[in-house]
User: Fold this.
Amino acid sequence: MASRKSRQSPGYKCKHESALAKLINEHLAVLGWTQKDLAAAANMPESRLSRIMQGKKEKGNTVAVTELDIGQIALALKIGKTGRDKLRYAAWPELAYIDDALGSGEGVIALNSRLAENGLSPLGINNPKE
Assistant:
């Protein structure tokens, strides 16, 4: 007889919580909200928010977080553009480096060196994510 997998408790958090999930959970705690509350406020299916919160590295999780997801979550949390940018940087850390490079006039080659130094994939045709 196959054993049944136990259901997760409402307060379940994965062991390796992503930076994005951690940041969202901090906002939820301040508001006293659950993920269900956030999903409703963001007009987003609970299942999608749950997969976003689990992170990209969870087995069987194929959801790709989009800019629209981040926008919906930021609007629901009422955290403004700065808060939205923090969510973006948590989801895609390389964007913080790109924004810095745009502000300082840094080129792609120098930026790629900084990305590599920080364990992030470089920009361009040699990007292993493609």
Summary: Residues 51 and 63 are 6 Å apart (CA to CA). The longest helix spans residues 19-31. DSSP finds seven helices and no strands in the chain.
